Amino acid sequence: xxxxxxxxxxxxxxxxxxxxxxxxxxxxxxxxxxxxxxxxxxxxxxxxxxxxxxxxxxxxxxxxxxxxxxxxxxxxxxxxxxxxxxxxxxxxxxxxxxxxxxxxxxxxxxxxxxxxxxxxxxxxxxxxxxxxxxxxxxxxxxxxxxxxxxxxxxxxxxxxxxxxxxxxxxxxxxxxxxxxxxxxxxxxxxxxxxxxxxxxxxxxxxxxxxxxxxxxxxxxx
Amino acid sequence: xxxxxxxxxxxxxxxxxxxxxxxxxxxxxxxxxxxxxxxxxxxxxxxxxxxxxxxxxxxxxxxxxxxxxxxxxxxxxxxxxxxxxxxxxxxxxxxxxxxxxxxxxxxxxxxxxxxxxxxxxxxxxxxxxxxxxxxxxxxxxxxxxxxxxxxxxxxxxxxxxxxxxxxxxxxxxxxxxxxxxxxxxxxxxxxxxxxxxxxxxxxxxxxxxxxxxxxxxxxxxxxxxxxxxxxxxxxxxxxxxxxxxxxxxxxxxxxxxxxxxxxxxxxxxx
Lengths: 221, 270
Prior knowledge:
Chain B: InterPro entries: Glutathione-S-Trfase_C-like (IPR010987), Glutathione-S-Trfase_C_sf (IPR036282), Glutathione_S-Trfase (IPR040079), Glutathione_S-Trfase_N (IPR004045), GST_C (IPR004046), GST_C_Tau (IPR045074), Omega/Tau-like (IPR045073), Thioredoxin-like_sf (IPR036249). The structure holds 2 protein chains of 2 kinds. Chain A has helices at about 15-30, 45-50, 70-80, 90-115, 120-140, 155-160, 165-175, 175-180, 180-190, 195-200, 205-215, and strands at about 10, 35, 60, 65-70. Chain A is an alpha+beta fold. In chain A, strand 3 (about 60) and strand 4 form a beta hairpin. In chain B, helix 1 (about 45-55) runs parallel beside helix 3 and helix 4 (about 120-145) packs parallel to helix 6. Chain B is an alpha+beta fold. Classes of the chains: A alpha+beta, B alpha+beta. At the A-B interface, strand 4, helix 3 and helix 4 of A face strand 4, helix 3 and helix 4 of B.
């Protein structure tokens, strides 16, 4: 497949919450694109060519030009396809949205990984940390329908894919997100009513199966 | 070279960090702009915000955070990370250096040349390199300073050896033949990378590692000279020798008081 072709291609992997951010953004903007499932255990020449530095998905290829890093891709999508903006128009609100999306990026995935990789005391520490992270996010959400207010926005896109991982986190580390952060769970259910989200996210039990597979693979059973 | 107005009272080491050698003419009263920046002279991240404000010709009040302590205002304005820089505009805080720079670019869009590229693809490329620089590069440079042992030196040398040729290669594509990554004027990626130049020179002097090498990355050497001599930059870029003294002081304090865990060489906000 030549990369100089016109059109939009997304190099991705089914379970990736980072890839899902891009799928959701593209769906929100009603952009037609080709989804290309990548085998990360045996990386394709195309992937190595378009993301030589990190060799990771997702990569968005637009008219042959690659864009890497999920939040950078989401911003690019928002700036090119300007219908239904994901970022508000006020500069201060935009700065806040960028801050919280960046917070999700810095904290959620890494802490989540610790929840299923670690055991004992270390896992308990990670659980405390995750609950703190989720409470901070819930505080920022407040009583709003979305992080973006009435509009499903940048922070919502950044965070919602991880909600499919809540069941896996809860089961591995023995806690309940709903008990700790009921508003956040209510928000995630509201997001699932959007077609873009419902079609992009996987069943939490499937995600948990995948985590169990990873645990076996890394000898953590 | 350091002519600090060091305190006459050795029991107050924190005064040393407010030394007067640092050019202070950026500290202007904000007037009715109500614009304050919580920062410190040594922080490359605070420098990013200051360069952006200088590019737009915007006055602000610099509130200096003293290394090793966190003011009430800082804790209140950035409760999540408790780190500088924080821009406070009409009482509202903005955190994270590159988010601050973009905010400045958007609010004062008419006041000076655009800091971010206008083309979405060019913006994506600039953002990509900024994430790369902040994630991969600076943390390892800091380790060199903290460690100052052979292993840390070797690791930092490797990181720099990998990172800089990539940026050297990216420069012509971004600059399109002009002086800066951003084109004719200092832009988003210039600010993100250039803020480290004082520390790079300090690390070179302290470790003997040649980071910016005329032989290996001549384009970047030329760019660095142009960047550092820019009006918006030269008054806020610390001298390498000042940073070396600063590092030694921090090391001395850390060695003398091993229980003080909250000392940082510089506030890393990514």
